[in-house]
Amino acid sequence: MFNKKFEQFEVNETWKSRGRTITESDLVMFSAFSGDWYPLHADKEYAEKCTPFKQRIAHGMLVLSVGTGLLQMEPEVVVAFYGIEKLRFINPTFINDTVHLELEVIDLKDKGNGTGVITFNQKIVKQTGETVVTAILKMLANKEAN
Amino acid sequence: MFNKKFEQFEVNETWKSRGRTITESDLVMFSAFSGDWYPLHADKEYAEKCTPFKQRIAHGMLVLSVGTGLLQMEPEVVVAFYGIEKLRFINPTFINDTVHLELEVIDLKDKGNGTGVITFNQKIVKQTGETVVTAILKMLANKEAN
């Protein structure tokens, strides 16, 4: 989506990413990387016996991080990813779930210095149709002239 | 910090984590894991020649994810990490920077069902004293009785 300049964006426009399956390897890699070995993510026995989900679930940050890899971002366009409002983890992502992004532009603000802020709703959705993560993201993008 | 029950928390209490050095390996692992190979994080030549930082910077989500590994969380306590408000990436984290967490409890809400919501300001701070990430996090925690 971020392969065009600020002027080419429109409020209400939408974009959908390709999908990615969240594997057991992803859970292990993310625990190893982050240091977050919380049993709900890393202990199969505990997750099956002691949690309402009856299985391991992916870390919220894992799903959100995978989301950044599904965004198309070109360096000529994106100046900075500068923040998130109201991030919610609303449903669990299980091993072998396949997630994709659904974006909708909700605000465009010209900064008057060759850049503008694109605000969009991001939903991360899985194959069942359930939304697992919702967030409002803000991206600083270049204008044509810049 | 999350190794005690809801009743034991107090508004204004603070907690500081140990540190972790963000290495070049971390940047590579995070790109490989997330699929985010944006040149600012992954292309040394580009980062040195074409960006105001003159070097690669860590992905915002990398720093935030490392932050989750620095939280102490016990499964008897934490029911769910359910969201973030107002996440801002305010300064860059470079390779070899060492970050730690600084938490302050700002709100406690008893849910009346054996759990309560702990809201806290989280800052991720580096060795220079600069804050790199700010966020308001919400954690659902068990009460003693639960």
From TrEMBL, chains A, B:
PANTHER family: BETA-METHYLMALYL-COA DEHYDRATASE (PTHR43664:SF1), MONOAMINE OXIDASE-RELATED (PTHR43664). This is Dehydratase. Residues 14-117 form the MaoC-like domain. It holds the Pfam family MaoC_dehydratas. InterPro entries: HotDog_dom_sf, MaoC-like_dom, MCH/BMMD. It comes from the Bacteria. Gene3D superfamilies: Hotdog Thioesterase (3.10.129.10).
